[in-house]
């Protein structure tokens, strides 16, 4: 696979990886090896960054769209992310609230679906009942 794809799967920024990683083709076996027993450079990148957008968004508790709305277009280091979490700029508070609302709405919809499926299952079980007994009894 391409180095950019492998980097995404490893949760790192491809441009920050060593040259031999960026210039090579990564096999599935190599990717599995890197995941199972990460070399020091990979551990350092995961710990300190710079981090790709999806990792930055996850660490900040916002969406990648929220990062874009806030004008955060560049990769951030762990120290920069920590600074944002400590200082909590207005955009971060707003985007975290938006993300929390999205999660709550997804959970509400999921609960409604489970409830509807449970009711449908109950209705299906009782569909063949006559006078409180199953018709095949």
Automatic annotation (TrEMBL):
Renumbered residue ranges of the record's region Disordered: 98-137
Compositional bias segments (type: Basic and acidic residues): 103-116
Biased composition (Acidic residues): 120-129
Domain of life assignment: Bacteria
InterPro entries reported in the protein's UniProt record: DUF5997
Pfam family, one: DUF5997
Protein name: Uncharacterized protein
Organism per entry: Naasia lichenicola
């Amino acid at each position: 696979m391409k180095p950019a794809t492998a980097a995404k799967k490893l949760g790192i920024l491809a441009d920050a990886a060593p040259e031999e990683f960026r210039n090579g083709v990564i096999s599935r076996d190599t990717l599995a090896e890197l995941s199972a027993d990460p070399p020091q450079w990979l551990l350092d990148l995961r710990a300190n960054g710079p981090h790709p957008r999806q990792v930055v968004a996850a660490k900040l508790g916002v969406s990648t769209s929220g990062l874009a709305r806030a004008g955060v277009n560049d990769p951030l280091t762990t120290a920069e992310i920590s600074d944002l979490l400590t200082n909590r700029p207005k955009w971060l508070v707003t985007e975290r609230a938006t993300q929390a609302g999205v999660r709550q709405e997804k959970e509400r919809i999921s609960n409604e679906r489970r409830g509807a499926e449970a009711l449908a299952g109950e209705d299906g079980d009782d569909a063949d009942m006559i006078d409180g007994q199953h018709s095949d009894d």
